[in-house]
Design brief:
VOC_core, VOC domain-containing protein, about 130 residues, four-stranded mixed sheet, alpha+beta, Glyas_Bleomycin-R_OHBP_Dase, 9 strands, Glyas_Fos-R_dOase_dom, single chain
Length: about 130
């Protein structure tokens, strides 16, 4: 069996967060989505569980970070090319997110980033060639 990853992210408004990510083209697994959580499909075997803060708090004794105030994680994922990277960031901004910095072109890799409605940092990237040795 292939390993799967489920990243759990705190959200303030589950329905609003789901609408944001649907606007970017992400789908949700209905088997693991209800009024307490949404299982967003990022790729084969990669999922993000959007969890309202009170529900996420039941999984830990630590305080839940406010991603608008501090960086708790940077979620980097691959895209098929520059156009897809740029389209995702443009879609995120149009849906209410923000692009905190300019795109980065490293020659062999192109990245850009956006913050979702809850301040989580996402970095779509495209590998364009072989990195320098």
């Amino acid at each position: 069996m292939h390993k799967q990853i489920y990243v759990n992210l705190a959200v303030k408004d589950l329905a609003r967060s789901m609408a944001f990510f649907k606007a970017l083209g992400f789908g949700f697994d209905p088997q693991f989505t209800n009024e307490q959580a949404a299982c967003m499909i990022v790729g084969e075997n990669i999922y993000v569980m959007l969890l309202p803060v009170p529900f996420l708090q039941t999984f830990t004794d630590k305080p839940v970070a406010d991603a608008h105030q501090s960086t708790e994680v940077l979620l980097c994922f691959s895209c098929d090319g520059r156009a897809e990277v740029d389209a995702l960031v443009a879609g995120a901004v149009a849906a209410g997110g923000r692009a905190p910095r300019a795109p980065q072109d490293h020659g062999f890799m192109y990245t850009h980033s956006f913050e979702d409605l809850d301040g989580h940092l996402w970095e779509p990237m495209a590998m364009l060639g072989v990195p320098p040795a």
